[in-house]
Design brief:
This is ParA family protein. The protein is of the alpha/beta class and about 280 residues long. It contains 13 helices and eight strands.
């Protein structure tokens, strides 16, 4: 049996996907880049991964080469009362095992639409719950705000990964996001936990970057991933190309860092078989 087939069988045995929200109310921290490349790195070893674009800007969809402005059906339609079959919205990306629920500017109307809905915070859960058995992981790219859409993501997630840039204002944002997570945990989703914090756009030459990372390590301890994502022009270039960096420049430093992050993530998730298979792909 190949390593990838072993991973698929291990994934199938788990029953339901683990849902992870990538969240930070501050924009420009590498959240979408992390969603795309972490998802692609997991898919590389045969794991079934669904990416959910929950940002009206549609950055995640664009990063995967989807002409999101021209889409007839998106996540917005799935959140509406007369939702289409989810398979009519689902897109198979160019990366094997990696699927996408796309988004565009239409999603900005969802906030208004959901306000008067009963159980509005669980609207996304009602969309994803029926297909959780199809995937090993579902990664949700949240918009850069603590909006109703973000609360929907937190309400259906098992864990949260927080990408953060090493600057002072990011520290303040972490505290605010932690407060929001605590409220969601108390009122909507008791299983929600912090899966980890990943430092992005890290420049080890800058004293300020090192100081901020050290401060986060002191405060959050093991919840901070050891893997750090470096700042590089490769990421915006791969976005323009409409591909994850892991396939557009597979031997680049950034691609290897996201594979290392995937290994760490899988180890924390208890998926030792998948983590071992990903290690064999180095």
């Amino acid at each position: 049996m190949s390593a990838n087939n072993a991973v698929r069988e291990a994934g199938a045995a788990t029953g339901e996907a683990q849902v992870i929200a990538l969240c930070n109310q501050k924009g420009g921290v590498g959240k979408t880049t992390s969603t795309v490349n972490l998802g692609a790195a997991l898919a590389e070893c045969g794991l079934r991964v669904l990416l959910v674009d929950l940002d009206p800007q549609g950055a995640l969809s664009a990063a995967l080469g989807v002409a999101h402005h021209n889409l007839e059906l998106t996540v917005y339609d799935l959140l509406s009362r007369n939702a289409p079959p989810i398979d009519d919205v689902l897109i198979k990306t160019t990366v094997p095992n990696l699927h996408l629920l796309p988004s565009n500017i239409d999603l900005s109307a969802a906030e208004i639409q959901l306000v008067n809905e009963v159980g509005r915070e669980h609207s996304l859960a009602r969309v994803l719950d029926p297909i959780r058995n199809r995937y090993d992981f579902i990664l949700i790219d949240c918009q850069p705000s603590l909006s109703l859409l973000t609360v929907n993501a937190l309400a259906c997630a098992d864990g949260v990964i927080i990408p953060m840039e090493c600057e002072y204002f990011s520290l303040r944002g972490l505290a605010l996001l932690n407060d929001t997570m605590e409220k969601v945990r108390e009122r909507l989703n008791p299983r929600l936990e912090l899966s980890g914090i990943v430092v992005t756009m890290f420049d080890p030459r800058l004293l300020h970057s090192r100081q901020v990372r050290d401060r986060v390590a002191e405060t959050f301890g093991e919840q901070l991933y050891d893997t750090m994502i470096s700042r590089t022009v490769r990421f915006p270039d791969s976005t323009i190309a409409g591909e994850p960096l892991t396939s557009w420049a597979p031997k680049s430093r950034g691609a290897e860092q996201y594979r290392e992050l995937a290994r760490e993530f899988l180890k924390r998730s208890g998926r030792d078989e998948a983590q071992s298979s990903l290690s064999l792909m180095q």
